[in-house]
TrEMBL record:
GO molecular function: enzyme binding
Organism: Latimeria chalumnae
GO cellular component annotations of the record: late endosome membrane; plasma membrane
The protein's role, per its UniProt record: Part of TspanC8 subgroup, composed of 6 members that interact with the transmembrane metalloprotease ADAM10. This interaction is required for ADAM10 exit from the endoplasmic reticulum and for enzymatic maturation and trafficking to the cell surface as well as substrate specificity. Different TspanC8/ADAM10 complexes have distinct substrates. Promotes ADAM10-mediated cleavage of CDH2. Negatively regulates ligand-induced Notch activity probably by regulating ADAM10 activity.
Similarity field: Belongs to the tetraspanin (TM4SF) family.
Membrane topology: Multi-pass membrane protein
Gene field: TSPAN15
Disulphide-bonded residues: C156-C172
Pfam families per the UniProt record, alphabetical: Tetraspanin
This protein's name: Tetraspanin
Domain of life (superkingdom): Eukaryota
Protein localization: Cell membrane; Late endosome membrane; Membrane
Taxon lineage: Eukaryota, Metazoa, Chordata, Craniata, Vertebrata
GO BP, sorted A to Z: protein maturation
Amino acid sequence: PPKGGGMNIDFSFNKGYKLIYKYGMFILSCLNFLIGACILAVGIYAEIERQKYKTLEGIFLAPAIILILLGIVMFIVSFIGVLASLRDNLHLLQAFLYILGICLVLELTGGIVALLFRNKTLDFVNDNIRRGIRNYYDDLDFKNIMDFVQEKFKCCGGEDFKDWENNQYHNCSAPGPLACGVPYTCCIHNKTTNVKNTMCGYKTISKVRQQVHDIIYVRGCTHAVLIWFTDNYTIMAGVLLGILVPQFFGVVITLLYISRVEDIISEHSSIRDGLLQAGHRQPAVDFTGGGCCMCFPG
């Protein structure tokens, strides 16, 4: 083994880089841990509130379930990252690297597939919106989201306003005042008055678009949202980068961290072997895990 100051300088150099990667990974994991915990808490609260009403079948239409699953995944992955950075445990570091890498690949793959099969993706979204419309008055969770989207994006239904015929109360064959109509959130409000006419969509489903385009919004919400995404592509690009870049840096930092830990383990093994060959005995050290700060002797 190398003797003198050269060994110490080289070892300190590796140790310094290890600390940079260690605390970088620790801070990133802690931030994701807190975000995951908040998302999980919001999802649990939303699900408790949602259970007070009749719920839909299908995860796609249950934002509370999506939040809970997302929060659990972020919570577990970030916890592994925090523990791995504190313990310098190679097995935990590798597990964190693989899980984070798989999540990143799945997200990228899902986005690419959605773009390549855009029409099928739109059909999938529209079909699920129609399922939600069938239970519009039974699921407050979906109702609030649909009302917000229709008012915010000035749209009606999924593919178009005629999707509301899938609802038993808005179907043209149904009895009652809602038959063949759309919810008031589809209505074009008169800007001269602040009074909302809740029956402005009365008997509109049976008519063609040209007859009702000045009374209700006739375009579907999936198209309206896509147009908004296109018009605000810089915002969407920022959101996507905000999601993907931290994960990418997490993978890179973890990979470099593992490399530095392996280098230090290799150096310690060389030092130990040299001391043993020189006739000096010292206790064996477990290099796969250590204390919460520096695991290896300086």
